[in-house]
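Practice problem 4.
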């Protein structure tokens, strides 16, 4: 239900804000990209394509999706035992919710392999289905889309609230908030015409600070 809903929001935004886009664009993006947060970001990037070079787009995509590398590292030991065609599909379709289900199962051996495969396939289909529904609805039904782009932000805010209830997760949360605010203020003051690039600067700053904090024993023990 979460993927269908989020995919629908993405499809509506895509056709309402990006010129010459339709349900086929949503199908192509959702089938090949499989990254909700990056697809939401891409709507803004496609809408203002003149402000984003290919290099900036690539770096932003890397920073937004770098968390998948951490997911992948924890699954290497399990995935390496699967046939190559299943292993590559699981790598390609790895997302936040899919990882949560795949990493929490108590199944082992072939049962786990088939469980992971079908979870990935169903989640992929759910996101694709939602994207098409949203794109078709957005093309046929005229309505105000204000606020729909907040859907992904709302999802991550819910996750954040749950995480910060644990004392060990408050430093990363604070780092993210301070880095984003600092980047926004910096661009507003010094580069107001390029304020849309503040996200790239904010994510770079977050990564640098978090990597720096890992050098301290107290941080490592707490995490």
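Answer key:
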């Amino acid at each position: 239900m979460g993927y269908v809903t989020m995919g629908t929001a993405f499809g509506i935004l895509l056709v309402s804000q990006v010129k010459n886009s339709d349900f086929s664009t949503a199908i192509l993006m959702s089938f090949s990209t499989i990254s909700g947060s990056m697809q939401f970001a891409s709507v803004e990037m496609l809408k203002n394509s003149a402000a984003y070079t290919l290099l900036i787009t690539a770096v932003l995509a890397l920073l937004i999706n770098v968390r998948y590398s951490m997911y992948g590292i924890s699954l290497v030991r399990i995935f390496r035992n699967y046939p190559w065609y299943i292993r590559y599909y699981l790598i390609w379709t790895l997302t936040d919710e899919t990882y949560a289900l795949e990493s929490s199962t108590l199944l082992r051996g072939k049962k786990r392999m088939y469980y992971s495969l079908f979870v990935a396939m169903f989640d992929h289909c759910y996101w694709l289905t939602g994207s098409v529904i949203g794109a078709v609805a957005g093309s046929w039904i005229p309505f105000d889309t204000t606020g729909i782009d907040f859907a992904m932000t709302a999802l991550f805010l819910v996750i954040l609230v749950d995480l910060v209830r644990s004392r060990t997760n408050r430093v990363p949360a604070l780092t993210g908030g301070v880095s984003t605010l600092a980047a926004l203020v910096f661009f507003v003051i010094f580069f107001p015409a390029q304020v849309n690039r503040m996200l790239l600067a904010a994510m770079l700053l977050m990564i640098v600070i978090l990597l720096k904090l890992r050098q301290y024993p107290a941080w490592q023990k707490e995490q």
